[in-house]
Amino acid sequence: MAGTPIPLIAGNWKMNMVHSKGMGLATGIAEGLDPIGMIPVDVAICPPLTLAAELGAFLAATRIVVGAQDCSPLEEGAHTGDVSANMLKNAGVGCCIVGHSERRADHGEDDILVNAKARAVLATGMTAIICIGETESQRDAGETIDVVTKQLAGSVPDEALNTNTVIAYEPVWAIGTGKTPTLEEIGEVHGKIRALLYDRFDYDGAAIRILYGGSVNADNAHDILRVENVNGALVGGASLDSEAFLKIIRDCPAPPIPGS
Ligand code: PGA
Question: Tell me, what's the pLDDT at 254?
Answer without folding.
Answer: 81
